[in-house]
């Protein structure tokens, strides 16, 4: 028997539309997972930075108390700038002791000490007796949501 070889048509080297859509969908899913993780990591980093800044500000307030006999007075009003905190820790008078050097991103145009989330740190002295007592100060950040009323979610010194 004579076997005549058939000519095989050349293979196509292009992707089908379905294959392209599947690849795009997979890339989209992976990108959304990475972005969600990046957002979580950024929030965690901001929270850690706020904890460190509150610890540093607390240490500066303790030094202030040692030198002056008491903490600077303060209010915890939501929209009140905490300029009194800045003035006490980093006075503008020459020859006066500076207790804390504020980084460039820690202050805003209304002379408030700003947390990593962009809201102002809250400071109260005398402190709330239910939290830290009347002989101590309260220093906190509401975190990602400045209007947060749940104290368990705050970043605080008590």
Set out the fold topology.
Blueprint: H1 17-68, H2 83-89, E1 122-124, E2 138-141, E3 155-156
Antiparallel strand pairs: 1-2, 2-3
Task: Write a structural description.
The structure is a single chain. With 158 residues, the protein is mainly α. The protein has a domain at 51-156: 2-Layer Sandwich (Glycoprotein, Type 4 Pilin), CATH 3.30.700. Helices cover 37% and strands 6% of the residues. The chain has helices at residues 17-68, 83-89; strands at 122-124, 138-141, 155-156. The chain has a three-stranded antiparallel β-sheet, with helices on one face. The longest helix has 52 residues, at 17-68. The radius of gyration is 29 Å and the shape is rod-shaped. The N and C termini lie far apart (96 Å). The mean pLDDT is 79.
Q: How would you concisely characterize the structure shown here?
A:
The chain is mainly α. 37% of the residues lie in helices and 6% in strands. It has a 3-stranded antiparallel sheet with strand order 1-2-3, with helices on one face.
């Amino acid at each position: 028997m004579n076997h005549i070889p058939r000519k095989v048509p050349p293979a196509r080297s292009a992707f089908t539309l379905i294959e392209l859509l599947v690849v795009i969908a997979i890339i989209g899913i992976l990108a959304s997972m990475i972005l969600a993780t990046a957002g979580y990591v950024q929030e965690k980093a901001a929270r850690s930075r706020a904890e460190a800044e509150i610890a540093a500000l607390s240490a500066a307030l303790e030094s202030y108390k040692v030198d002056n006999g008491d903490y600077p007075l303060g209010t915890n009003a939501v929209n009140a700038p905490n300029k009194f905190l800045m003035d006490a820790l980093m006075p503008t008078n020459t020859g006066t002791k500076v207790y804390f050097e504020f980084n460039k991103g820690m202050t805003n145009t209304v002379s408030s000490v700003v947390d990593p989330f962009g809201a102002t740190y809250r400071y109260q002295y005398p402190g709330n007796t239910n939290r830290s007592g009347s002989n101590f100060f309260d220093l906190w950040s509401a975190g990602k949501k400045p209007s947060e009323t749940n104290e368990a979610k705050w970043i605080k010194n008590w």
